[in-house]
Amino acid sequence: MENINNKKKTVFQDLTSFFKKELDYSDSKSFVDLNFNPVISKSKSKDEFEQIRLQKQQQKYLKSQWKKIRNVVDRNVLIHEAQRIPAYYDYDMMSYHELIGRALEIYTEEAVNMDEKGEILKIFS
Prior knowledge:
Elements: H1 11-22, H2 46-95, H3 98-111
């Protein structure tokens, strides 16, 4: 698509103009027709119906559990991200303490010592 100045529009500009033009909420014709069908499923026997109903219930339950877990995980990620920067500050301030600073120096010296093969880090899995 091209605009008045014959310059190529970006994808963002194309999408913005599309949604402004196509989804004018003041006009009821602009909404997408979802072709609503009240029939969820069809079955020929009661057992088949019960099986389909049970599957739908299980899917609904799993979807709700997934949504709950996703919210908990997202919330925990945000909490830990907010606490990360102050923790770096705390660690930095601890390095200035006499005893803690010396202990941190010992840990760093031991962590980067090479072994007899010249390797610093070994990973076994």
